[in-house]
Amino acid sequence: MTTCTHLDQVQDVMPRTHGCEECLKMGDDWIHLRMCLTCGHVGCCDSSKNKHARQHFHSIHHPLVQSIEPGEDWAWCYVDQVILTLS
Fold first, then answer.
1. Are 27 and 12 in contact (CB under 8 A)?
2. Which secondary structure element, helix H or strand E, spans residue 53, and what is its range?
3. Following CA atoms 2, 67, 71, 46 in sequence, which dihedral angle do they give, to the nearest 10 degrees?
4. For residue 34, what are the β-bridge partners?
5. Alpha carbon 29 to chain centroid distance?
6. Residue 80, SS3?
7. pTM attached to this predicted model
8. Rounded to an integer, what distance in angstroms lies between the CA atom of residue 43 and that of residue 65?
9. I need a surface site. Which of 21, 28, 43, 87 has the fewest CB within 10 A?
10. How far is CA 61 from the centre of its chain?
11. What pLDDT is recorded for position 14?
C-alpha cells in the first residue's frame, strides 16, 4: 500500500474562493472543486476541461488537494498518487 509522504505540507487553510479561481476569471464552468491543502487555492478537478487543480500542482508544486464537494471527505496526493481519508 502506498502512503503519502507529504503530510508535513498540510496547512490550516480555507478556500480562497467559492469556485475554481481560474474558471471564475475566465467565465468558464467546472465539474468538481479541489482545494490545495498548502495554500487554499481552489481549482477544478481532472474531470473538468481545464483541470486547474492539477495545473496548480504542476506550477506551484503543492502536492495535496482536498475535495470540497459536499459530503466528500478525502484528499489526493499528486506525487504519491494516493487517496487519503480525512476523518
1. no
2. helix 52-60
3. -90
4. 43, 67
5. 16
6. coil
7. 0.94
8. 9
9. 87
10. 12
11. 95
CA 63-26-71 angle, 5° bins: 50
**Euclidean distance between CA atoms 37 and 43, whole angstroms:** 12
Cα distances (Å, whole numbers) of residue 54 to 12, 61, 77, 87: 20, 10, 11, 24
Residue 5, CB-side half-sphere exposure with 13 Å CA sphere: 4
* Element holding 24 (H helix, E strand): helix 21-26
Per-residue model confidence as pLDDT tens digits over 24-79 = 999 999 999 999 999 999 999 999 999 999 999 999 999 999 999 999 999 999 99
* CA 76/CA 82 separation, integer angstroms: 6
Rounded Cα distance between 3 and 49, Å, is 29
